[in-house]
Design goal:
This protein has 178 residues and is mainly α. It has a domain at 64-160. It is built from seven helices and no strands. Helix 3 crosses helix 5 (120-132). The chain is elongated. The termini are far apart.
Length: 178
């Protein structure tokens, strides 16, 4: 009879010990709230990090919006397949790679460009336009990218205006501008 009385009580006591140990372990895992002096010191650092990440996020959003606008501009101005986003993307890379003398990589992109059914004639005009505008500082990748984009949108107009600018500046001081 004594066993029947102490058996359930012992099980209940053991269960209580397990529950209390689990609760104390959870309490130790949770971070302690910082003291007021520490909270004031850490707060500006966190806001600076948040500020930087927010600025980076805004910059990435602006870049994405600019890229989308460039693709829509090309689609609106070019009636042929050269205005399709996949053609614009691969074609601009081909022209940039050819300018930087990376012929092997350019060939791979040309295969992709052809697979999309893009206009090879437009690609020729774009590269001619880029070449006819003269040298670019190799370290200024953004200048090359903007030149390639301008030539992609209007290869004949850009070539004509660059030729006029080159001709007029050549006659003034005898040098060709970069």
């Amino acid at each position: 009879m004594l066993r029947r009385t102490f058996g359930p009580a012992a099980a209940f006591l053991a269960g209580g010990v397990l529950v209390l140990s689990a609760l104390s372990a959870l309490a130790e895992d949770q971070p302690k709230p910082p003291e007021q002096g520490q909270a004031e010191q850490k707060q500006p650092e966190k806001s600076e990090g948040d500020q930087k990440s927010a600025d980076q996020a805004r910059a990435q959003e602006q870049e994405a919006a600019k890229a989308i606008a460039e693709y829509k501009e090309a689609e609106a101005k070019l009636a042929s397949s050269a205005g399709a986003p996949e053609c614009v993307w691969t074609g601009r890379r081909v022209a940039s790679l050819l300018w930087r003398d990376d012929i092997d990589t350019a060939r791979r992109y040309i295969d992709l460009y052809d697979r999309f059914g893009c206009s090879s004639e437009h690609l020729k005009l774009v590269f001619r336009c880029v070449i006819e505008q003269g040298p670019i500082d190799p370290k200024a990748a953004d200048r090359l990218a903007s030149r390639v984009h301008d030539c992609w949108i209007a290869p004949q107009e850009t070539t004509t205006t660059s030729n006029q600018a080159t001709t007029s500046s050549t006659t003034k001081d005898g040098t060709i501008p970069n």
